Amino acid sequence: MSPTLTLYGTPTSGHTHRVEALLSMLGLPYVYREAPAKVRDSAAFQKLNPLGQIPVLVDHERVFCDSGAIMIYLVQKYAPDSGWLPTHPAEAAQVYRWLFIAAGELRYGPAEARGIWQWNWTGEHTTAKEISANLLRFMEQHLTGRKFLALDHPTLADLACYGYIAHAPEGGISLASCPNIRGWLKRVEALPNFKLMPDLPIPSAAKSSARSVVQSG
Ligand SMILES: N[C@@H](CCC(=O)N[C@@H](CS)C(=O)NCC(=O)O)C(=O)O
After folding, report:
1. How many whole angstroms from 208 Cα to the centroid of ligand 1?
2. By Cβ atoms counted within 10 A, which residue in 126, 132, 170, 215 is the most buried?
3. How far is the CA of 173 from the centre of ligand 1 (A)?
């Protein structure tokens, strides 16, 4: 199949990663265009997404923004029977719940903490840490006796949450006391054609203490 899909993103963006992982697992060929801040600030990019955010997916002439919407589009258009997004309303609701958590607690907890530490985003690391602790507590308990987040098989819920949880230590958020979450991450990574997100250095203890947070694993 020749690619009709173009994805704009960056390699270390968890929002981009969830779309790339899905494209890879669905076996959909695509062209990747790197869009660092300089590109996102350009008039050409802002014609695609006036919010200046990645990921953006272009399919033929159509433009899709927002990682959750892009994932839903890809499954509904290219793999409606794949199970990544069930059609049964009650099952779909379980998946949507995690997509909203990905845009809420995950974004403002682990993703925010990582952004503050790695790229000096303006924001309160203490607040992001509190949100993260609450989310990790809930996920750890939720994953007791469960293999995947929403249903008994992998869904978009798992892809949406994977990146910023797997890379939470890069923002000083430890997963050391979360065995269920670490087991879930391994199960997601073992899925056929899953694509990993590149690692960033975990901040040093010195940097950690300078920012009044506990060093994470
Ligand atoms: N709700 C959006 C958020 C995407 C997002 O925050 N992307 C970040 C990179 S990971 C970005 O482009 N930030 C630049 C900006 O907000 O100006 C989604 O799910 O795609």
Report:
1. 25
2. 132
3. 20
- Is 9 near ligand 1, meaning CB less than 6 Å away? no
Q: Is residue 28 one of the residues assigned to a domain?
A: yes
The answer to whether the predicted template modeling score (pTM) of the entire model surpasses 0.90 is: yes
Amino acid in the structure at residue 15: H
The 10 Å Cβ neighbour count of residue 19 is 29
Residue 20 has which token pair?
A: 């790339």
Residue 111 and residue 205 in one domain: yes
Q: What's the Cα-to-Cα distance from 207 to each of 57, 138, 168, 198, 203, rounded to whole Å?
A: 36, 28, 16, 21, 6
**Looking at this protein, which amino acid is placed at residue 83?**
G
DSSP H or E stretch at residue 25: helix 14-26
Q: Whose CA is nearest to atom 2 of ligand 1?
A: 66
How far, in Å, from the CA of 140 to the mean position of ligand 1? Answer: 26
Looking at the fold, whether 194 and 126 belong to one and the same domain comes out as yes
* Single-letter code of the amino acid located at 173: I
Measure 5 CA to ligand 1 centroid, in angstroms: 19
Closest atom of ligand 1 to 111 CA is 10
In a domain, 84, yes or no: no
Which of 47, 78, 109 represents a domain boundary (last residue)?
A: 78
- Coil vs helix vs strand at 33: strand
- pLDDT per residue as tens digits for the range 85-129: 999 999 999 999 999 999 999 999 999 999 999 999 999 999 999
Pocket test for ligand 1, best of 22, 38, 53, 114 (most atoms within 8 A of CB): 53
